[in-house]
């Protein structure tokens, strides 16, 4: 591992640890076949993974409402439906993405114009 530092993503008590110098893409993992009782829980989803799932849902749909986005994100994680906890998590992380300038909220969630012109991640 390189000389990067470990940082906490999330609040002080339940935050996830991550490398501050991470440059590789986040992988959204389908947890439908996980046998652990705690791993598929919404509060166990790393915030960067939820954010990436939101960005992918927005890119695939050009623009998407929060409720539909929560359903898409839930499906990416292997859930059959979006629970209230998932809806709240998507809303929280979408708000963060808007504040970071990575999403625009104008009725629906949309990518900023310069990002939508070039694709989200270069992956198609």
Q: Would you mind describing this structure in some detail?
A:
A hairpin with a 6-residue loop joins strand 1 (6-9) and strand 2 (16-19). The two termini are 29 Å apart. Strands 3-5-4 form a 3-stranded antiparallel β-sheet. Strands 1-2 form a two-stranded antiparallel ribbon. Helix content is 39%, strand content 13%. It is an alpha+beta fold. The chain has helices at residues 47-61, 66-76, 84-99, 113-118, and strands spanning 6-9, 16-19, 63-64, 104-106, 108-110. The model is unreliable at 117-124 (pLDDT under 50).
Large-scale geometry: globular
Q: Could you give the order of strands across the largest sheet?
A: 3-5-4
Average pLDDT number? 77
Uncertain runs:
117-124
Secondary-structure element order, N to C: EEHEHHEEH
Q: Approximately how much helix is present in the residues?
A: 25-40%
- What is the end-to-end distance? 29 Å
Sheet-strand content, in percent, reads: 5-15%
The biggest beta sheet is recorded as: 3 strands, antiparallel
Radius of gyration: 15 Å
In short:
This protein has 124 residues and is an alpha+beta fold. It has 4 helices and 5 strands, in the order E-E-H-E-H-H-E-E-H.
